[in-house]
Design brief:
alpha/beta; Rossmann fold; seven-stranded parallel β-sheet; globular
Length: 251
């Protein structure tokens, strides 16, 4: 590598300089790490989350331009937040919400139906906002998962949602063009949400993944954030679903 190339690399302009990234569900885990990576690339970030104290800590951590504490599945609060954003916005990422686990025999069907409706409403409301308020070439990015790939007892509702994301993302990419729409599908990611779901079994799961994944390590939020920022930057990418699971699907 020449000295000229070294200097060019050293002075690379941040890839998101002057852009605005909105992260719905940005107070922890993948959302927070994406906000942190976007800030490193020069973006202003706007964070939302349900827990005001945790959100305030996250906003201070990344130097967010703005924060808004509310439940993203509350349609009135969501509409008010989206309506308050100055247009145009460059990128919107939706990482709010968690999985729904329950075997059919123990399932509260009404609760399961609310979970599906809440997630679908969130996607569609943000998509409607993006149609008029995200700049051409900007990004609408949804965080899904790989839960539909292999059947397991107790994941039927989550499998239903994750199976639908690729089709929904592809269709929205056509309808919202030239706004770009993509889906990130993580496998297991070592986040506070994973810790809360697994409890005492977390360390065992980490060791299992280190032993079996082709990458021989556990996927972390920074791995997903790096992909998310790349999808914001690379304007050739739309209508696609991108796995980030350390090769979990091929094991």
């Amino acid at each position: 590598m020449t000295a000229l190339t070294d200097r060019a690399t050293a002075v690379r302009e941040p890839a998101l300089l002057g852009q605005t990234v909105v992260v719905i569900g940005g107070s922890s885990g993948i959302g927070l790490e994406t906000a942190r990576s976007a800030r490193t690339e020069g973006a202003q970030v706007v964070l939302t989350g349900r827990d005001p104290e945790r959100l305030a800590r996250a906003a201070a951590d990344v130097g967010a331009a703005r924060q808004a504490a509310f439940d993203a599945h509350d349609p009135d609060r969501l509409a008010a937040f989206l309506g308050s954003l100055p247009a145009p916005v460059d990128h919107v990422m939706v990482s709010a919400g968690g999985p729904y686990y329950a075997p059919i025999a123990d399932m509260d069907v009404a609760d399961a139906c609310r979970h599906v409706a809440d997630h679908l409403r969130l996607i569609l409301e943000v998509a409607r906002y993006a149609a008029g308020s995200v700049r051409p070439g900007g990004t609408l990015l949804f965080v899904s998962g790989t839960g539909a790939r292999r059947p397991h007892v107790g994941i039927a509702v989550t499998a239903l949602l994750t199976a639908g994301y690729p089709a929904l993302g592809a269709n929205l990419a056509l309808e919202l063009a030239p706004v770009r729409v993509n889906v990130v599908a993580p496998g297991f990611v070592d986040t506070p949400l994973s810790a809360s779901l697994l409890g005492a079994d977390l360390d065992e799961r980490r060791e299992q993944l280190r032993a079996t994944l082709p990458i021989r390590r556990v996927v972390g939020p920074a791995d997903v954030a790096a992909l998310a920022v790349h999808l914001m930057v690379n304007t050739a990418l739309t209508g696609a679903t991108f796995d980030v699971d350390g090769g979990q699907q091929v094991v």
